[in-house]
Amino acid sequence: MGTRGHRLAGTLTAVVTACFAFVGAAAPTTPAAVDYLPLDRRDAQALLRQVTQRVMSFGCAAANNGTAVSLDDGTVLTAAHVVTGTRLINVIPDLGPTTVATAEVSPTHDIAVLRQPPSPAPAHGIRIAPDDPPAGTHVLVAGYPHGQLSLVIGSAVIDGQVDGRSVGQSPGPVLRVRTRAATGMSGGPLLDPAGRLAGVLVATRSGTDESFAIPASTIRAALAAGVTQPPTGAC
Known about the structure:
The protein has 235 residues and is an alpha+beta fold. Helix content is 21%, strand content 34%. The N terminus is likely disordered.
């Protein structure tokens, strides 16, 4: 290689070195945090089987069926009306033994917390979504319709929000969900695409594909205010 070739090679080496030095300086030293990692359907269904339980509450004259969901801090949520007027509550996970629970309800919303004896087995739970899902969000819903033994998981779409008073709930936003829920699914979770709790089912319009859920923001507010009252309607 002649003198000209050596000069050209030296120039290219300097340019390449400078480019790599620039890229290295611009690159972040730590990866950016990612809050939204969509689950595929199979993983989402497996998660729901871990965190969703069947609830059988026995009152003065009859049994009431519902659904509950475990949070990542160990809290077990259901709808308050599932445990109203009960004397005994059985919590039956899809995978695991039946336990007896007591309940405490929110004074302002259709939300209840189930208290169970400590378990030696590691608990599975999901975290509450940081924001309410906007209209058009695809979610999964889970529950035990009519108290059946097998967990049912289905697809749903968020249609928007309505005032809770229009569907027999407390004032404030309630999610309108396009899904055919059934008796026994109250308290069941809505799982957003990232595997977080977007809401809890509380009502449905009979004979339609329209159901309603307490949104994540209301769940957070109710838990922060304290879910400490005993269920009403005792015998």
